[in-house]
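Figure 3 (text version): structure tokens given as input.
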């Protein structure tokens, strides 16, 4: 057992003066965190980020000091120059904090202007400083608590092991202890609370949405899928427009009612049963008799972007069937943490069921088959197929919007791009199979399409797509070369800090105006669907009218 003396000593170390090396590095990280990244930040978010950045830099400084002591080198604070350096650090760091806080408004307004947002008159430097100080203080106290545990353990183990060995073992044991507490208590308790909250939210029935009367609609009295089992997002997806009447009113031509088949998480007990149910419902409503069939993989909550659905519905004049299958009711990041493979397994099962039936139909009588997904839906949609699907009976194309950075096909194409093209709008090969587009217009290629058309719709300011885990140690590739219009020219790479900035950006990626970050505009979906599925009967004037109509609907 630890001695009382060692425990008292560890407690006293909680009040030790700040490490000068940690103070230097912490302040540098704090200052760098105030510079712009991809997404505008409000004062509260900036304060939290800056507090974390300071604590991270301070921790690196403390680690460097610990290694210095571990190697048996003399402590600078015991020398006269060390005491002078500590005093100088406090003065210079305080001045640096004031100077960078004063520039924060300009940096944030640079991003806001590029996204068409109103400028802020002040970044509220005092509030940012107070929030950052509070966050940093909590993290520093946790760090010192960790150090105190290491000290107590090392004193105990030092009776039986060499001093350096006891320190290493103590760090490992303390790490396991803190990880167990954080993961087993804090994380699991929070996860249970969020799971319960999202489950209740998914079960909420919008009283403004009545079960459809049309027997061709999922959730109707004639449907194989009960309206209540669709979940909140499924009911919204089925009820979303456009209707046949709306399409005819815009185009002035005959149209059909778009078919939307959706299987909720509670519609069947497991993935295979839900996939079989989706196929049976598709056959019931005649989905395979339409000219275009889309397997649309939802996000973690089961949400489908109505802007994409409406754009395709109008372009195909309603001659389209869309099938989706919910695999979670959690937010995408939570769904990945809880079960990172479940969404891909679900998408794979639905693709296998639909593709398996589709390939049995005569080639001249079956619909064109496309894949679609946004964000986590794009990632799982990509994982739903393999090379043999392309070699045997290939589908006709895929539109993947806002692909998360781990997406396998996206990463392969981006890394294998023409070196003369930027990473945020790459050109892969001759562009005959894979093309990328941003909000600047249709994707380009040197050659005509051949085989399946794969289109990536991505915004350069989207951190979900352009987060790089290695940015803590190296410059992201998309920061090299020319900048996109929605990326600040003042954005610079800083070790560790850029990683924290992009991580925070991912949490608020949908807080931007439509057409930036991770919020996709309907007019960009129009261009993307034209590139993916074609719309030869739509001339430029008709496309402009469609975009104006979608914009009037707030999409």
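Below: residues designed for each position.
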């Amino acid at each position: 057992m630890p001695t009382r003396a060692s425990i008292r000593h560890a407690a006293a170390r909680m009040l030790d003066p700040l490490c000068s090396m940690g103070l230097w590095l912490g302040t540098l990280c704090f200052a760098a965190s105030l510079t712009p990244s991809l997404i505008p930040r409000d004062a509260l978010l900036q304060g939290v980020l800056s507090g974390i950045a300071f604590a991270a830099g301070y921790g690196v400084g403390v680690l460097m000091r610990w290694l210095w002591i571990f190697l048996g080198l003399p402590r600078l604070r015991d020398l006269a120059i060390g005491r002078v350096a500590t005093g100088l650090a406090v003065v210079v760091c305080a001045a640096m904090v004031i100077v960078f806080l004063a520039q924060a408004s300009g940096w944030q307004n640079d991003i806001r202007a590029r996204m068409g947002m109103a400028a802020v008159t002040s970044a509220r430097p005092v509030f940012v400083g107070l929030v950052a100080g509070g966050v940093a203080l909590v993290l520093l106290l946790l760090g010192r608590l960790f150090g105190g545990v290491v000290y107590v353990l090392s004193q105990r183990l030092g009776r039986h092991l060499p001093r350096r060995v006891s320190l290493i073992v103590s760090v490992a044991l303390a790490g396991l202890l803190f990880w167990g507490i954080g993961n087993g208590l804090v994380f699991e308790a929070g996860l249970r609370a969020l799971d319960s909250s999202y489950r209740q939210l998914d079960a909420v029935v919008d009283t403004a949405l009545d079960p459809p009367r049309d027997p061709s609609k999922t959730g109707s009295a004639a449907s194989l899928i009960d309206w209540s089992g669709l979940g909140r997002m499924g009911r919204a997806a089925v009820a979303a427009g456009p209707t046949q009447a709306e399409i005819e009113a815009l185009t002035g031509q005959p149209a059909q009612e778009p078919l939307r088949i959706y299987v909720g998480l509670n519609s069947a007990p497991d993935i295979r049963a839900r996939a079989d149910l989706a196929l049976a419902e598709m056959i019931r409503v005649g989905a395979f008799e339409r000219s275009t069939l889309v397997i649309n993989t939802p996000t973690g909550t089961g949400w489908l972007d109505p802007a994409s659905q409406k754009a395709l519905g109008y372009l195909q004049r309603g001659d389209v069937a869309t099938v989706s299958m919910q695999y979670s009711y959690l937010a995408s990041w939570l769904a990945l943490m809880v079960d990172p493979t479940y969404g891909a397994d679900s998408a794979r099962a639905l693709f296998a069921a639909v593709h398996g039936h589709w390939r049995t139909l005569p080639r001249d009588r079956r619909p064109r088959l496309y894949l679609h997904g946004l964000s986590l839906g794009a990632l799982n949609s990509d994982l739903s197929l393999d090379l043999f699907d392309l070699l045997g009976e290939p589908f006709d194309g895929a539109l993947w919007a806002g692909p998360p950075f781990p997406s396998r096909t996206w990463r392969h194409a981006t890394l294998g791009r023409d070196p003369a093209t930027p990473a945020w709008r790459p050109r892969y090969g001759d562009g005959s199979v894979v093309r990328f587009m941003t909000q600047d217009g249709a994707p380009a290629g040197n050659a005509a399409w051949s085989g399946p058309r794969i289109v990536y719709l991505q915004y350069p300011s989207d951190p979900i797509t352009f987060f790089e885990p290695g940015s803590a140690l190296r410059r992201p590739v998309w920061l090299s070369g020319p900048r996109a219009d929605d990326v600040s020219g003042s954005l610079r790479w800083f070790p560790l800090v850029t990683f924290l900035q992009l991580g925070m950006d991912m949490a608020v990626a949908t807080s931007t105006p439509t057409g930036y970050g991770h919020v996709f505009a309907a007019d960009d979906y129009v261009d993307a669907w034209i590139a993916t599925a074609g719309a030869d009967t739509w001339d430029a004037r008709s496309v402009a009218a469609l975009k104006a109509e979608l914009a009037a609907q707030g999409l």
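Strands lie at 259-263, 292-297, 320-325, 368-374, 397-401, 434-437, 453-457.
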